[in-house]
Specification:
This protein is an alpha+beta fold. It has a domain of 76 residues. The protein is 39% helix and 21% strand. The protein is built from four helices and six strands.
Length: 111
């Protein structure tokens, strides 16, 4: 019984260290969350990210919303600037998971 406890005592930390190391090796694409802030351009049935708004030549039929709402309405990106701004970040697995749970900010969180 004592040998089994000592093996468990040694193998659990080793397993944890291996999982952390693997997390720093495996790549993962981090996507914007569904509540990422965007502007709906209802005239053209498109959406614009805030960083691209100045160059968008938008009309006055606008609404602040989220990516999820834009997808529900089947709106398309207003320009290539919007498409590029919403492309996923290539991160390591552990960094991506930290971004998903909110410990590390995503680039889209500051809009």
């Amino acid at each position: 019984m004592l040998k089994m406890k000592s093996k468990l005592f040694i193998s659990v930390p080793i397993l944890i260290v291996l999982l952390v190391l693997v997390g720093f090796i495996i790549p993962r694409i981090t996507q914007p969350s569904s509540d990422t802030r965007i502007v709906l351009e209802h005239t053209y049935r498109t959406y614009i990210v805030p960083s691209c708004f100045e160059e968008s030549d938008a009309t006055n039929f606008l609404e602040e919303s989220t990516i999820q709402k834009a997808r529900e309405l089947n709106y398309k990106p207003h320009s290539s600037c919007t498409e590029d701004a919403l492309k996923g970040d290539k991160d390591r697995l552990i960094v991506s998971l930290l971004k998903e749970i909110g410990i590390v900010d995503k680039k889209w969180d500051n809009w």
